[in-house]
Write a structure and sequence with these properties.
Strand content: 5-15%
Distance between the termini: 49 Å
């Protein structure tokens, strides 16, 4: 059945723009969900984009043959394709999450399959619209150009609306529902705009689908994030508090542990004895610098470190920079720790830490504490590269100390040794400075014990105080910089090679056995390809 000439070309343009927006929005959510399901590893975006593009390619090839097989008009075929895409997108989310409870790998595969199938169905609409537009008297080239342009414009709008609006004002689960309803809404509009008769049946089906999604949404997505984040055998099984935002999802478990997009970010505890969040590392700050009057903390996390740093007697000012407002909202629910934000010495800035440092080149600090990402996560290079460490160094006063999380990576230690003269390790944290760390054990012990709360009582006290302090001090190594600089099997992490992310996946491990004239550790392309 051919399209009647009365059908306006603008109908096809609007359909292509809307389809592009929905496809881009779905791809963004697929990437976020799949990333949460595998710890936000760096290959997540590549895998998601690959299956989405593969789906688009298949859909573009299959659109016209499918239309001929169905024997329906253009707009009605388009309505069915869009509705199918929305349904697959919506149902695959809770289905994949449920499978992850038993088989995480199969669950992630279900997410990728859903992304490919939903993208293919939406892409199949484009050649159908192109043929219909050409049938109205436009040349085939012009029809393709108009449809492609409309699709790209829609994709740009979809990314902006989904990433900067929906995810900032709605939960991830509600955003999934909104995009699914958007697909059903477009399907219904296309069905109504079709010149064929018997419109009620299709409209009724789409309306019932939308009502079904609305009615079953809470049940379908119950525990969705916990299933995706934790999987089988995890200690945590649910969140008590969840804060959504475009910067990510902050979840707090019933036992007071904070998670960012499924990875542990700290605990709401000040108990150095129980030490659920390795809080002893925070107590070491006054033991690494004799007079830490001005401290910069990059990353608020649970706020426990902020409370301990503010309790250091020498501190005159504590500047905190956090890029995800969700941590602040979660902190307000913990009054024992949130009170630190009322301290006149504490200033909180909601901004990207690296951007904030670049925008304040004249600020200098005695100690910079950076709660950096797990070194293997996507984007970790942004906070662990030599360029970033040089940026930190530029904000240190004379004799200043940079104290940041290396999460056990020797490459991060090696990179730090190329920026500072002296590097030591405290548990999985790294302390670096151009001044030697020459404090004796007794001096460090006194500095740790001097950390006191607002009431003046020492934070570490009681019968086990001596054992707790010894356990904290035992985490501190000697100066590792000379040995690190002699190493020839570690990588210098840069913004270009992204070594902390791609080397950490294990990809390319065998390349290190190749002769030096062939293998260049500073060039990361082999680890990307293999």
């Amino acid at each position: 059945m051919t399209v009647r000439p009365s059908t306006s070309p603008r109908t096809f343009d609007v359909a292509a723009v809307t389809a592009g927006a929905l496809t881009a929005g779905q791809a963004m959510l697929w990437s976020r969900v799949i990333g949460s399901a595998n710890g936000n590893r760096p290959e997540t975006f590549t895998h998601t984009l690959s299956v989405v593009l593969a789906g688009l390619a298949v859909g573009l090839l299959a659109g016209l043959p499918l239309k001929e097989r169905l024997g329906m008009g253009t707009l009605r075929v388009g309505a069915l394709l869009v509705a199918f895409s929305g349904a697959v997108f919506y149902v695959s989310m809770p289905l994949g999450a449920a499978v992850m409870l038993t088989e995480p790998a199969v669950g992630r595969a279900a997410f990728l399959a859903g992304a490919a199938l939903a993208s293919a169905a939406m892409a199949a609409l484009i050649p159908v619209l192109c043929e219909a537009s050409a049938a109205l008297g436009h040349g085939r080239s012009l029809a393709i150009a108009r449809a492609t342009s409309a699709l790209l414009i829609g994709a740009a709008v979809g990314v902006l609306v989904t990433g900067f609006v929906l995810l900032d004002v709605e939960s991830l689960e509600h955003t999934i529902l909104i995009l699914a309803l958007g697909a059903l809404g477009l399907a219904q509009a296309l069905w109504l705009a079709a010149p064929e008769r018997r419109r009620r049946a299709g409209v009724t089906v789409f309306a019932l689908g939308a009502l079904g999604a609305l009615g079953a949404h809470d049940r379908l997505f119950e525990g969705f994030l916990a299933h995706v984040h934790f999987g089988p055998g995890a200690r945590e099984t649910r969140y008590e508090v969840v804060v959504h935002g475009r910067a990510g999802v902050v979840g707090v478990t019933p036992d007071g542990r904070a998670y960012g997009d499924g990875l542990y970010r700290g605990a709401y505890s000040l108990d150095a004895d129980a030490n659920p969040n390795l809080l002893g590392r925070a107590f070491l700050v006054p033991a690494l610098h004799r007079a830490p009057r001005r401290i910069l903390q990059l990353g608020l996390g649970s706020g426990a470190w902020t409370r301990i740093l503010a309790d250091v007697r020498a501190v005159d000012s504590l500047t905190v920079v956090e890029g995800n407002p969700g941590y602040l909202e979660a902190l307000w629910r913990q009054p024992a720790i949130a009170g630190v934000l009322d301290d006149p010495r504490v200033r909180l800035h909601l901004a990207d830490p690296r951007r904030w440092l670049a925008q304040h080149p004249d600020r200098r600090f005695d100690v910079i504490v950076a709660n950096t990402e797990w070194h293997w996560r996507a984007g970790a290079t942004h906070e662990l590269s030599a360029e970033f460490l040089q940026l930190l160094k530029g904000h240190l006063a004379e004799g200043g100390v940079a104290y940041f999380n290396g999460t056990g990576s020797l490459d991060v230690l090696y990179t730090a040794s190329g920026v500072w003269r002296h590097v030591i390790r405290a548990s999985n944290y790294i302390a670096a400075s151009d001044a030697p760390f020459n404090q004796g054990r007794d001096e460090r012990r006194a500095a740790v014990l001097a950390v006191a709360g607002p009431d003046g009582a020492p934070r570490i006290r009681g019968d086990r105080a001596a054992q707790v302090v010894d356990a904290i001090l035992d985490q501190v190594s000697g100066d590792l910089a000379p040995a690190l600089r002699r190493a020839n099997d570690l990588w210098n992490i840069t913004d270009d090679n992204m070594a902390s992310e791609f080397k950490a996946t294990g990809a390319g491990a065998w390349w290190r056995a190749l002769p030096a004239r062939v293998w260049r550790p500073d060039r990361a392309w082999p680890t990307v390809l293999f």
